[in-house]
Each structure stands twice: as structure tokens, then as C-alpha cells.
């Protein structure tokens, strides 16, 4: 199998990133594995798509750090490859990371992903539907039963009324962004600063005001979902609780959150049941759900992180299960070269 992983930039990748885990697993399992920056594509006059890509020689890497170091070193293989010749491409770039410094890159990966699909390459997650998920409005398309009360607005008076309706406590965050950046907790102590918070966030666009769930004090749970089902290996769910022991309300790992083992409850599994139909319809092969109690806080469809954390907590290699699923899809596509659309194959 020839597989490509699209990232923001090879220079910004980290050994702990899920993408590096997946690429190393594919390499160790004997697959031709390439990493491609979102700015490395070309479409030639004949319509063919190429990319400047990098691969690591050999198959015996013992750690993501050694694998990534080899990729970046002079011993790494750099070639302009034919993307048309790849069996499958995983879109793993996060548009939010490029929004400030490289705004042109926010949609570039999606657009080239759509071109790849048009030429017959299997692309996961489905890029046509990824285009609808560039900001947090995608979250609002999931059933209200699993969403906390939410307002999206730039109107300061309307936001203030929403906070009052929530008993004076709410979370404010930008419509675009990730990793807990720009997130504020409004409480009775902070209410005098509400207008300043609104002004600060609205400089970058719309504001999401959201109900604070009582269970949030215990952190949230990141659950990996593959093909619309909870990702499992060796009887373990790929899920963990993120807890921030400081006064910071954010439990994101990038904002100081710590990972703990979690017992996956029936209410968490029910959340997956409710969101499964849309994830499958949209061709969302691998996603990260952030769950608090019986509510869904975020749906991460671009580059959900934490698979390395799951592996360490439960001492199992979830990345290999994901690569096994890619192998199945490539085999399926070979049997049905024209009979099944990209989004359909993505979640079969």
C-alpha cells in the first residue's frame, strides 16, 4: 500500500502527534509511507497531481522521535511523487494552525484533497465534507440532544443575555481555532469583564457562547471514533480523560491538561450512537469526540490528537488498528474502482 499523510508542515510535526504515530505504524507494517506538507502540492497542465514528499528509509524504528528525526535528516528520502499513484491519503493538517501566519493554507489542503478524489485517489477524511468543518459551526449540525446550549453571535447584548440565562456562568470561545486558544470562563467573579472578553474574541470573528456543564469540573473525555464506531484494540477503548488540576478551565493537552485512564460509560457510548449517522454520511473516517457527561463538546475531524497517549495508558498500539482499516479500504476500492464514492468507502 502507498499511503500519504498531509500535514501543516514537516518542520512543525512533533513525535507525540498522532500523525507521526500513524505514519510510523504504516512504515513498520511494510507500506510505502510519505509525509506531505500542505504547501507541497502541484497540479500540472494535464491535471495530474504531484507533491514534494518525504519518507524515512528502513522499517525498524523503535520510537516516533527516531522516525521523525530520520525523516528530517539528510538520510530521509525527498522526492516529487505522483499523488495519483498513492492508494490512500490521510488529511492530517489542522487549518486552525495556519489561520494567522498562513491564511492561504487554511483551505489549500481541502481543495487539493478534492482534486485528488476527482482523480480517483481515496482521501480520508472526505475533503468535500471537511470543507464544511473548517469552523465550529459543523458542531451545530449534530443532534441537539447531545449538544450543550450554545449561542453563536457577535452581538454583545445577545451574548450578555445568554450568559444571564445560563445563571451568569458560560464559556466563550472563538468560532475558529483549536487547542483551547482564546477560551474564557465567565462567572460571577468575571462578569464585570464580560464586555472586554467579548471585544477580545470578536476581533477575530464570531463568538461561541456555551453552557457550562457541572461535570466539566472533572475534565472531559477524548474518544477516538473510527468508521463511526469507538476505536478499540485488545479490548481497550482509545479514550482518556483530560484533567487540568490548575484554575485554568481548559483541559486541552496543549493547555496543561493531564491524561488519565477512563472507564467508558454507557452515556459516552450513547453519544457515539447519536453522532454515528452523520459521521458516516460525511465520510469522517477517524475523529476525536470530546465528551463531558452525556454531552458532546467538540467534534475534531481534521487532526485529532492523543493516540500516543492512549497507547501509553493502555499499553497497546491503536495506530496499527487504524492502518489495518486503511488496508481494508484500499482492498475494497480495488474491488469496486468506480462503484463506491469516496465518502462511502471512508467509513466502511
Total individual domains: 3
Question: What is the name of the CATH topology of the largest domain?
Answer: Rossmann fold
Specify the CATH architecture of the largest domain.
3-Layer(aba) Sandwich
CATH class of the largest domain: Alpha Beta
Low-confidence stretches: 250-255
Strand content: 25-35%
Number of helices: 11
CA-atom Rg in angstroms: 20 Å
Strand order of the largest sheet: 4-3-2-1-5-6
Largest sheet: 6 strands, mixed
Question: What is the CA–CA distance across the termini?
Answer: 18 Å
Order of helices and strands: EHEEHEEHHEHEHEEHEEEEEEEHEEHHH
Principal-axes shape call: globular
User: Helical residue percent?
Assistant: 25-40%
In short:
The protein is an alpha+beta fold and 348 residues long. The protein has eleven helices and 18 strands. Strand 1 (2-7), helix 1 (18-28) and strand 2 (32-43) form a beta-alpha-beta unit.
Describe the structure.
This protein is of the alpha+beta class and 348 residues long. The chain folds into three domains: 2-124, Rossmann fold (3-Layer(aba) Sandwich), CATH 3.40.50.20; 149-212, 2-Layer Sandwich (Dna Ligase, domain 1); 215-316, ATP-grasp fold, B domain (D-amino Acid Aminotransferase, Chain A, domain 1, 2-Layer Sandwich), CATH 3.30.470.20. Helix content is 30%, strand content 25%. It is built from eleven helices and 18 strands. Helix 1 (18-28) links the parallel strand 1 and strand 2. Helix 1 (18-28) packs across helix 10 (318-335). It is globular and about 60 Å long. 42% of the residues are buried. Residues 250-255 have low confidence and may be disordered.
Amino acid at each position: 500500500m502507498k499511503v500519504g499523510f498531509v500535514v501543516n508542515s514537516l518542520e512543525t510535526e512533533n513525535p507525540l502527534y498522532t500523525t507521526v504515530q500513524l505514519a510510523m505504524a504504516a512504515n513498520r507494517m511494510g507500506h510505502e509511507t510519505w509525509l506531505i506538507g500542505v504547501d507541497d502540492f502541484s497540479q500540472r497542465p494535464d491535471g495530474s497531481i504531484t507533491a514534494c514528499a518525504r519518507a524515512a528509509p528502513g522499517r525498524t524504528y523503535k520510537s516516533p522521535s527516531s522516525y521523525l528525526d530520520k525523516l528530517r535528516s539528510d538520510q530521509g528520502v525527498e522526492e516529487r511523487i505522483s499523488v495519483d499513484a498513492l492508494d490512500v491519503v490521510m488529511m492530517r493538517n489542522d487549518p486552525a494552525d495556519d489561520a494567522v501566519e498562513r491564511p492561504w493554507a487554511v483551505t489549500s489542503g481541502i481543495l487539493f484533497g478534492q482534486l485528488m478524489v476527482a482523480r480517483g485517489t481515496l482521501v480520508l477524511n472526505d475533503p468535500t465534507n471537511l470543507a464544511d468543518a473548517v469552523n465550529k459551526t459543523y458542531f451545530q449540525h449534530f443532534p441537539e440532544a447531545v449538544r450543550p446550549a450554545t449561542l453563536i453571535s457577535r452581538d454583545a447584548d445577545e451574548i450578555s443575555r445568554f450568559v444571564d440565562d445560563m445563571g451568569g456562568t458560560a464559556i466563550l470561545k472563538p468560532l475558529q481555532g483549536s487547542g483551547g486558544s482564546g477560551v474564557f470562563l465567565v462567572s460571577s467573579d468575571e462578569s464585570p469583564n464580560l464586555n472586554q472578553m467579548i471585544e477580545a474574541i470578536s476581533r477575530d470573528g464570531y463568538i461561541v457562547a456555551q453552557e457550562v456543564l457541572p461535570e466539566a469540573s472533572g475534565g472531559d473525555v477524548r474518544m477516538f471514533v473510527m468508521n463511526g464506531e469507538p476505536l478499540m484494540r485488545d479490548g481497550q477503548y482509545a479514550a482518556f480523560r483530560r484533567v487540568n488540576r490548575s484554575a485554568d478551565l481548559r483541559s486541552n493537552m496543549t493547555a496543561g491538561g493531564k491524561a488519565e485512564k477512563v472507564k467508558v460509560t454507557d452515556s459516552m457510548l450513547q453519544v457515539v450512537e447519536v453522532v454515528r449517522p452523520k459521521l458516516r454520511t460525511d465520510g469522517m473516517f477517524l475523529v476525536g469526540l470530546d465528551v463531558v457527561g452525556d454531552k458532546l463538546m467538540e467534534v475534531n475531524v481534521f487532526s485529532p490528537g492523543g493516540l500516543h497517549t492512549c497507547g501509553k495508558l493502555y499499553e497497546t498500539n491503536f495506530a496499527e488498528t487504524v492502518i489495518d482499516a486503511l488496508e481494508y479500504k484500499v482492498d475494497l476500492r480495488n474491488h469496486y474502482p468506480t462503484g463506491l464514492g469516496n465518502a462511502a468507502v471512508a467509513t466502511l
